[in-house]
Design a protein that fits this description.
The chain is of the alpha/beta class. Among the domains are: 77-169, no CATH class; 236-292, no CATH class; 313-378 and 453-544, 3-Layer(aba) Sandwich (Rossmann fold), CATH 3.40.50.300; 391-451, no CATH class; 561-626, Valyl-tRNA synthetase, C-terminal domain (Helix Hairpins). The chain is 44% helix and 19% strand. Strands 5-6-7-3-8-9 form a six-stranded mixed β-sheet, with helices on both faces. It has a six-stranded mixed β-sheet with strand order 14-17-18-12-19-20, with helices on both faces. Strand 10 and strand 11 (327-338) form a beta hairpin. The radius of gyration is 28 Å and the shape is globular.
């Protein structure tokens, strides 16, 4: 039996329905990724699942006793006190009592009477078992219960809120953009933790690698409708493109027929005769159907305003060092950045990435060494605009700043038309900025940024809250940007698709420089490839491949007879698995698939996951033997 079931659910916040007669269910052990454009209703669906919101129509059924917990996108304003306080807050009355007990025990001047009273009330509620669960959760998530919540980094606060969600031992865990504000090490930790967690999971994320790693099913929200796909991101992209093409062809056929009927009715020939009344009624029905059609949201059309080219040498750093007190953030760092470089900065939160950026841009003077900027630099800095977005202005005013138009590569464009390129309708462009969603605010920041002429683009975590389509368009724009790019991001796919080299904060002030993106760094860093991807490992210098090492690696080893036979059989094995996966995937795309018995659905999901693992293993083995 499903843990939660939605039947013909409608939900609206004004305008077209966010959810339109939606059917959806969650089975035990599933990990469902919710995807869709910004504003499509993903967070709304999570609020319906945990009971915070109620549907306008339809019904939501929950299995008796099912427990649901939700991690929101933003840190709640009221969260305060110690880490223990915040985590225990998720347990209601018993949590409040445990927090009181925790404070009384650790007080310098212990109130024994108050302590005895709290202990008695906890015993009445069987609270010591729950206290053990709180402490086990804190230990499992590597959290200090006595630490002050307000002093934690954004990433650690998210970990505390995850602990608060988990301490209630939920059957269904709802996560809304869980990787926001987490560094790569924390994202990797979260992936591993959730893979080992036994409950059902429904999550919203823009991080494609995180999605591919976790999802056993992908559910897309598009124009109020839900479509379910097996948890294979590449298959989803392929099948979605096929569906959209079929939809476009059907719409074109319908529009052509409607145009023909409209032409017929305008001629007025015998249209009111009895034998033609059916045709007139059909035309009226077609008009209604066309009016009710919800068009696919357009894509952001991004174009950056370009300045004249900078000098060939953009930034040169020699033996640069900088420290806060006894803590070295940058030590003896040298590099040369030339025009056209696209450099990613990788490192844990608080490791000094922002400090390094400021040193390179001349906003901070090094304590040793020197930094020289090249000639004719025009810098556009994403984080600067994030800080200066005026809350008392609407989107139009924030970009226009008193002007009616912006200039993009020599062409004047009205600000309203420019904002429509970033999917702001006139209504949303004039709405108070406080009413914009996280994704809309980020699109506004990008619009403001790209309206400024630049030849050096500095972007600090630009991907938060963007939907996947906008994220991919941003990748394309940055890949084609003719100037120089400095990018701070914890999105591993985004780094791989955009940057040409990386600067990695490796601890104790050391900054490693590597060719390529995130995956290239993993291969080059001085650590075994099978080691856990967490905090970057310290090293004194870049990895340099010696000629004799490369030659040795390039020599292909001789295969044994058994390995040769295995290599010969692997292509057929791979082909069979791909065929079986495609067949099952096609069956799962049919809405009727999820109307069957829950046991059969779970078994097929498990079979698909097993086949995908076998296919991945077969490909890896083939690469190993054929390499």
């Amino acid at each position: 039996m499903p843990l939660i079931t939605l039947n013909a659910v409608d939900f609206s916040v004004g305008g077209p329905l966010l959810l339109d007669r939606v059917d959806f269910s969650i089975e035990r052990g599933e990990r469902v990724a919710l995807i869709g454009r910004n504003g499509a209703g993903k967070s709304t669906l999570l609020r319906l699942l945990d009971g915070e919101a109620r549907p306008d129509d339809g019904d939501i059924r929950r299995e008796d006793g099912v427990r649901v917990a939700r991690l929101e996108q933003e840190v709640p304003a009221g969260a305060s006190g110690s880490v223990f306080d915040v985590v225990a807050d998720g347990l209601g009355e018993i949590g409040t009592l445990l927090a009181q007990y925790h404070h009384l025990v650790h007080a310098e001047d212990m109130d024994t009477r108050a302590l005895a009273d709290v202990q008695h009330r906890i015993e009445q509620l069987d609270g010591w078992r729950i206290d053990q669960r709180v402490n086990e959760t804190l230990e499992r998530l590597e959290l200090d219960g006595d630490a002050t919540f307000a002093r934690l980094s954004g990433g650690m606060k998210r970990r505390v809120l995850l602990a608060r969600a988990l301490v209630s031992a939920p059957d269904v865990l709802l996560l809304d953009e869980p990787t926001n504000h987490l560094d790569i090490a924390a994202i990797d930790w979260l992936e591993g933790f959730l893979k080992g967690w036994g409950g059902a999971l429904v999550f919203v994320t823009h991080d494609r690698r995180f999605l591919r790693s976790l999802a056993t099913r992908i559910v897309e929200i598009d124009r109020g409708k839900l479509t379910s796909w097996p948890g294979d991101w590449d298959n989803y992209l392929r099948r979605r493109e096929e569906r959209l093409n079929a939809e476009a062809q059907e719409n074109a056929r319908f529009d052509k027929l409607l145009a023909q009927e409209e032409a017929w009715i305008r001629q007025g020939i015998k249209a009111r005769r009895t034998r033609d009344e059916g045709r007139v009624r059909r035309l009226k029905a077609m008009r209604v159907e066309r009016a009710q059609r919800r068009e696919l949201s357009g894509n952001v059309r991004m174009e950056s305003a370009q300045a004249s080219a900078s000098g060939k040498k953009v930034i040169e750093a020699k033996d640069v060092s900088f420290a806060f007190g006894d803590r070295a953030l940058v030590r003896d760092f040298s590099t040369t950045i030339v025009r056209g470089d696209r450099i990613g900065l990788i490192g844990p939160n608080g490791s000094g990435k922002t400090t390094l950026l400021k040193l390179l841009l001349g906003e901070l003077a090094p304590q040793a060494g020197e930094v020289k900027q090249g000639t004719q630099l025009q810098v556009a800095y994403f984080d600067q605009y994030r800080a200066t977005l005026r809350e008392d202005w609407n989107a139009l005013e924030n970009v226009a700043e008193g002007q009616e138009s912006v200039e993009i590569n020599g062409k004047r464009k009205h600000v309203m038309g420019y904002l429509q390129d970033f999917l702001f309708s006139p209504e949303r462009a004039r709405a108070p900025i406080t009413r914009l969603s996280g994704g809309e605010r980020n699109r506004l920041l990008l619009a403001k940024l790209f309206a400024q002429p630049s030849n050096l683009l500095v972007m600090d975590e630009p991907t938060n809250d963007l939907d996947v389509e906008t994220l991919e368009l941003l990748e394309e724009l940055l890949a084609e940007y003719p100037g120089t790019l400095l990018l701070v991001s914890h999105d591993r796919d985004f780094l791989d698709n955009v940057v040409t080299s990386t600067l990695v904060m490796e601890g104790d002030g050391r900054v490693g420089e590597y060719v390529g993106g995130y995956e290239d760094w993993l291969r080059q860093r001085p650590q075994p490839a099978c080691a856990k991807v967490s905090v970057p490992v310290a090293t004194d210098a870049k990895v340099e491949s010696k000629p004799e090492t490369v030659a040795a690696a390039a020599t292909k080893r001789k295969l044994s007879y058994k390995e040769t036979r295995e290599l010969e059989q692997l292509p057929l094995r791979i082909e069979t698995l791909e065929s079986d996966i495609a067949t099952l995937t096609e069956a799962m795309a049919d809405p009727a698939f999820f109307q069957r018995d829950a046991t059969a659905i779970t078994a097929d999901n498990a079979r698909l996951a097993t086949m995908q693992q076998e296919l991945d293993a077969a490909y890896a083995r083939w690469a190993e033997l054929d390499g």
